[in-house]
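Schema walk-through. Below, the input block comes first and the output block second. Nothing else is stored per chain. Lengths vary across the set, and this one has 181 residues.
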Amino acid sequence: MADTAATSGDDGIERRDFLVLAAGAMGVVGAASFVWPLIDSMNPSAEVLALSTVEVNLEPIEAGQAITIVWQGKPVFVRHRTEKEIKEAAEVVVSDLRDPEPDSARAEKPDWLVMIGLCTHLGCIPLGQKSTDPQGEFGGWFCPCHGSHYDTAGRIRKGPAPRNLPVPPYSFVSDTTIRIG
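--- output ---
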């Protein structure tokens, strides 16, 4: 009789409740430890976080020169435009363009043009950053893969590309420094 009382009394119920709660808690901890790595893998990698913003010193770039930097794994073209390039970009009849966008909407300051350097047709990197590169019929950039021509504002003028070269989010931190991202 002593055995029956020990397993069926209040002590047995409390012990069973404790075991159910402990097993349930272990199940929740196990499920969380399984799901957390899956959720955590959706976060941006350390490389992307490190490159989420980039500051560029514009001081050494002379008028007519361009540099390419990497932002979020993409090439970004930064060109110090000449007066001639600014004038050509401003004189274009915007309504004639495939992707109509005025030069003033593409360059915060007319002297500086900042664009993501990926052709909007198939993602190639257009030529035109070096003075020796072919710059296409409109003096900007030329994608030799399929023949897209961009003007001095990075707008598509000829070829299969459907859109202008995209402008990343950027701001001037000072007169000689920009922050991209």
